Amino acid sequence: MNFPSDDALNESSETMEILGHKGISRRDFMKFCTGMAALLSLPASFIPKIAEAVSSKRPYVVWLEFQDCAGDSESMLRASKPTIAQIVLDVISLDYHETIMAPSGKQAEKSLMDVVNNQKGQYIAIVEGAIPLKDGGVYCCIGGKTALDIAKEVCGNAAFTINVGSCSSWGGIASAKPNPTGAVGLGEAVPGITYVNLPGCPMNVENVTATIVHYLTFGTLPAVDERHRPYFAHGKTVHDNCERRSHFDAGQFVRQWGDEGHRQGWCLYEMGCKGPIAHFNCPSIRWNGGTSWPVQGGHGCIACATDNNWDVAYPFYGRLPNVPGFGIEKTADKIGAGLAAATAAGLILHGVGRAISPKKDDDNK
Amino acid sequence: MANEGKRIYAWEFPVRFTHWINALCIFALSITGFYIGNPFMYAISSKQYIMGWMRFIHFVAAYMFLMSVIIRVYWAFVGNKYACYKVWFPFSGEKMSEFVNALKFYSFMSRKPPYTVGHHALAGFTYLIVYMMFLFEIISGFALYSVNHKGAIWYALGGWLTASMALQMIRLYHHLVMYVLLAFTLIHVYFAWYSDSREKNGLMLSIFTGYKFLTGKESDI
Lengths: 365, 221
What we know:
A: alpha/beta, Rossmann fold, two-stranded antiparallel sheet, globular, B: 7 helices, 2 strands, 63% helix, elongated
């Protein structure tokens, strides 16, 4: 098959020579570009454009961590294909990343400020972790500066910001009730900046790469929904693309962990799977190099990319939330049954009362 | 007493028609909705399509219910005085005392039925609440439907609700209001029968035929 890109990026081109020195074959590189085009729902004619953009531009990137568990960094380091991880690290110039960078202390902070001062409006900021606002932001300080101050300075001067993971997108687990540190997502903490949210716990590295590739190729951010999530990654529900969907429609459900249905790989709906409310592309791109994803592994979705999932998707193993204001044992069905019983009892009492009350023609009194 | 025994056309055809369509839809929506919330039947073979059919029936019944509610609300503006929307807002002093009387009658504290041809104040107000619940069920239902069916129509019918209310909360209240409507149905049928047996005005038949018989004591002929 002859792609138009074959001319621009043949084995002897300069780009391929450079990539070759880094141990990346042309084949791997084209596979990566093709994969990115597919993920972004672009036709094959865009593959050469992507290849050209990715191989010619090298944006500065700084990665900030606030209230987080470094899970998104872990996710990034486990990029599906190792060669692609190299490409991502080589295609972008990752100048600051607390967890994986070599420098420390003042030296590290200096490299951050160098990018902010010298590449104003040019660099990409990636933010991982929530920003605590309570008590003046004392709950997360780096080098004596609060998370909010750092975010204002770094993200305010960036071309745009990518919020990786649920914490920086909407607050994540740090903002779950009762939210003791007043944690919020970056969009709420620093209003007015240009950003895109890639929630998930953690985010999927393929989507981060695709967002950067989209920016390099088109010079813009991908189209986003009202929660600032790109449609290519968060446009469809997990339920709609789920490999177990046919079992849902058929009416085959897992009723208990380890039962026959569970072993057969039936639908986890009754076990509290939140696939129907979760917008994420897990079923199509999966995790760890396309190895698997939670539902394939036999566990329901917990809607990790949905705002406030720790509060609104709870209980994770129940279909409906607990009714507010009641004890946790009370479910909607128990209340419904109680309501029905009370109604029936009331009507019976009323009927009996009417039957035994003395008949008097006092309707006209 | 001059009117006693006289037949009067209370419920026009659209009122009776929408009443029974509503009843049918609520019955179908409750059964299928309960299944969707808690699948109580299990497929034996993967060739079956139980959840698929349940959802299909639920959605078709939902559209039917919406149309029926639209027709009934329209008729509240063009129909006769017993169908008029004003019946749903019994907040005048006279109506308030009728409201209290009806409440006393239903709770055994009085033996005097609230003689009316159309809805008495308590009934009218109850239907206001019931229609509010209908409206909530329609909006929340289409909000849940809009998750997988993007489009301006479904956004207008309920999709906008997802911006301010978590989907699981919409689902919970959609489910809980079903129980309230089912409880209402029981109470509704019981008190219709109770009123009929006390007032002897053919109330139970009137929702089939449209005609009620005057007892000569009605206040709203």
